């Protein structure tokens, strides 16, 4: 195995572990549960936080000008949503959605505007599936597809260890015999 390949492989492995997956997150819940849609801003100087849901005009939650805007909030989300406590200090703008219903299924987006900026940055894209209790869905109780990702990561990391072991075994079997090993004792 060449050193270049090994270097590239190690870099890619570390990159995959450290960098978040840019694909959307999927969460599965049952009606009546409280769900947290995880989202974190990298900059703590947050001026605006806006949560929306695809297919709906308006917003689920909007924070701006140092307060939450309730007047134009979508009626179906009133009294059911809040941001994670301490979000101003740590940038964790996760949305807590209480008493979910099947109507809450869909894709949610969180946009944040940093102080001093005019444009919003989309920082989270989350799909929520609310399946009726006792449904036939294989995914109830959590996102089972995420488990397959962990297995894939373990296999991905185990392959070079196995390849290294094979190379070591081959080199060990090819090494010349120690001096005097070919001499016969009289």
Automatic annotation (TrEMBL):
<protein>
    <submittedName>
        <fullName>Hepatitis A virus cellular receptor 2-like isoform X1</fullName>
    </submittedName>
</protein>
<dbReference type="Pfam" id="PF07686">
    <property type="entry name" value="V-set"/>
</dbReference>
<keyword id="KW-0732">Signal</keyword>
<keyword id="KW-0812">Transmembrane</keyword>
<keyword id="KW-0472">Membrane</keyword>
<dbReference type="GO" id="GO:0001817">
    <property type="term" value="P:regulation of cytokine production"/>
</dbReference>
<dbReference type="InterPro" id="IPR013783">
    <property type="entry name" value="Ig-like_fold"/>
</dbReference>
<dbReference type="GO" id="GO:0009897">
    <property type="term" value="C:external side of plasma membrane"/>
</dbReference>
<dbReference type="InterPro" id="IPR003598">
    <property type="entry name" value="Ig_sub2"/>
</dbReference>
<feature type="signal peptide">
    <location>
        <begin position="1"/>
        <end position="16"/>
    </location>
</feature>
<dbReference type="InterPro" id="IPR013106">
    <property type="entry name" value="Ig_V-set"/>
</dbReference>
<keyword id="KW-0393">Immunoglobulin domain</keyword>
<dbReference type="InterPro" id="IPR003599">
    <property type="entry name" value="Ig_sub"/>
</dbReference>
<dbReference type="InterPro" id="IPR036179">
    <property type="entry name" value="Ig-like_dom_sf"/>
</dbReference>
<feature type="domain" description="Ig-like">
    <location>
        <begin position="20"/>
        <end position="127"/>
    </location>
</feature>
<dbReference type="GO" id="GO:0005102">
    <property type="term" value="F:signaling receptor binding"/>
</dbReference>
<dbReference type="InterPro" id="IPR050504">
    <property type="entry name" value="IgSF_BTN/MOG"/>
</dbReference>
<dbReference type="GO" id="GO:0050852">
    <property type="term" value="P:T cell receptor signaling pathway"/>
</dbReference>
<keyword id="KW-1133">Transmembrane helix</keyword>
<feature type="transmembrane region" description="Helical">
    <location>
        <begin position="149"/>
        <end position="168"/>
    </location>
</feature>
<dbReference type="InterPro" id="IPR007110">
    <property type="entry name" value="Ig-like_dom"/>
</dbReference>
């Amino acid at each position: 195995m060449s050193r270049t390949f090994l270097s590239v492989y190690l870099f890619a492995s570390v990159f995959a572990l450290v960098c978040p997956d840019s694909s959307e997150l999927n969460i599965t819940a049952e009606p009546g549960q409280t769900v947290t849609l995880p989202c974190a801003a990298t900059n703590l100087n947050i001026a605006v936080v806006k949560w929306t849901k695809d297919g709906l005009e308006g917003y689920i939650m909007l924070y701006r000008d140092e307060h939450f805007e309730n007047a134009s909030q979508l009626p179906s989300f009133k009294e059911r949503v809040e941001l994670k406590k301490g979000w101003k200090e740590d940038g964790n703008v996760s949305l807590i959605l209480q008493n979910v219903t099947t109507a809450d299924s869909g894709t949610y987006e969180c946009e944040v505007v940093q102080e001093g900026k005019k444009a919003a940055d989309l920082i989270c894209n989350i799909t929520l599936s609310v399946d009726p209790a006792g449904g036939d869905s294989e995914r109830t109780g959590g996102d089972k597809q995420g488990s397959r990702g962990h297995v894939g990561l373990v296999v991905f990391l185990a392959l070079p260890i196995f390849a290294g072991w094979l190379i070591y075994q081959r080199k060990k079997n090819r090494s010349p015999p120690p001096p005097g090993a070919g001499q016969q004792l009289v």
